[in-house]
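re: that chain from earlier
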Amino acid sequence: MAKLKRNVTFLQALSINISAIIGAGIFTVSGVAAGLAGPSVILAVLISAIIAILTGMSFAELAHVYAREGGNYEYSREILGSYAGYIAGFIWIIATIISGAAVALSFGGYFLSVINLKISSEIIAAVLVVALGLVNYFGIKHSARLAILLISINIAILIIFAIVGIFFVKWSNFTPFFPKGANGMLVASAFIFFAYTGFARITMLGEEIEKPKKTIPKAIMVSIMISAIIYMLTMFVLIGVVPYGNIANSKSPLSEAIFYATHSPVAEYTIAVGAMVATINVDLAMILGLSRVVFAMARDNDLPKSLARINRYGAPDIAILSSTIIMIIAILTIDFKNIIALSNSAALVSYAIANLGAIKLAFMKRKDNSKMLFRWRFFILIPVLGFVSTVAMLFFLTKLSLALTFWLLVGITIYYVFAKAERARLGLPIVQYKQIPRKRNW
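^ sequence. v structure.
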C-alpha cells in the first residue's frame, strides 16, 4: 500500500486549521447566539474559547505522542481501546457529514442572494462539494494552497466588517448586558462553540505534516487564539451596530448588520461574498478531514479496506469519493432543524473522549514525562477541566440534539458488536498498535 507524504508545512497546517475554525459558524451562529445572550454573547465567545483551549491542549498532547492520520480516532484506539476509537471515529464522521452538508447549503443560499438564478440551493451546494472533492483528489498540497488563499480573504473581510462597523457602534446596545441572565450566556456559549469545532482538524492529517510532534500542537493553539480574537472583535461590532433582537433569527446576521448600519448594498454584498468564501473554506477542510478519518478507519479494518487506497497524487481517493457522495446525499435528504445543536453535541462527545484519552496518557506518563509536550506536574488538571467543560456544555444544548446523539451512540455500539463478531468469524484480528508497530519517521 502506498504511503502518505509528509509535505504540509506549519503555515499550511495553520491555514487548514484556521480555515476549519473561522468559517461559516461566525457568519450564521452569531445571530442565534446574540438572540440567546444579548450583549453578554461577547463573554460567551470567551467562555467557548477557554473550553476550546483546554480541549485543544489535550489534543496537542495526544498529537505530540501519537502523530497519526485519523486524529482522535487513532488516539482513542491507542489509549482507550478499539471501542472508544470506534465511537470517536464514527461520531466525528457523522458530525462532519451533517455540519458539512449544512455549510454547503449555506453557501447555496448566499450564492443565490448575490447571483439571482432559477436553481435550487441544494444543486449549488452539491456542485460545491463535488468541486472541493476534486481539489482534495489531486493531493493535499492543492488543498493547503487553496486554504491559505481563502482564509486570507475571509479574515480580510471580517476585518473590513470590524473597521467599517466600529464607526457605527452605539453603546446603548450593550445595556442591559445580561438581558437573558447568566443561563442565557451559557446557552449561547454552547452554540458559539460550533464556530470553534474545527480546532482539531489538523490532527486528522498526522502522517502528512512535516515535524508533526511540533507542528500539530503549535497549529492547534495558535489557531484557537487567533480565532478567539477575531470572534470577540466581530461580536463586539455586531452587537454594537444593531440591537441583538433584530438579528436573533437572521440567517445572515453580519450582512444584515452592516446594511443596517451603512445602508450600503455594496457593504452588504461584500460581507455576503465573505460568507461564501467562508463556507467554501470550511467545507474544504471538512472533506479533507473526513476523508482522512475514513482512510484511517479502513486501514485498521474498521471500514472496508478499499477505502484505504492512495492514488498517484498521494491522496486517499476512494475515501475522498465516498465522503463526497455521502455529503451530497445528506445535502439532498437531511432535516436541518436544530442542525447546529446536533452537530455540536456530536463534536462535544468526541472531544470528551479525547480529554479522557489525555487523562489516561497523563497517568501513563506520570513517572516518566520526558516525552510529553506539557511537562507540568499538574497537567492532568487540564484534560480533567476539558472533560468536565465539554460534558457540561452538552446539557446547555437542545433535548432533541441530546436524544439524537444518544441514539447515534447506541447505533454505533450495535454496529461495533456485530462488526467485532464478524471479524472473529472471518479470523480477522482486531488491530492494535502494540501488536503491529508502525515505522515512525519524524
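The mean pLDDT is 79.
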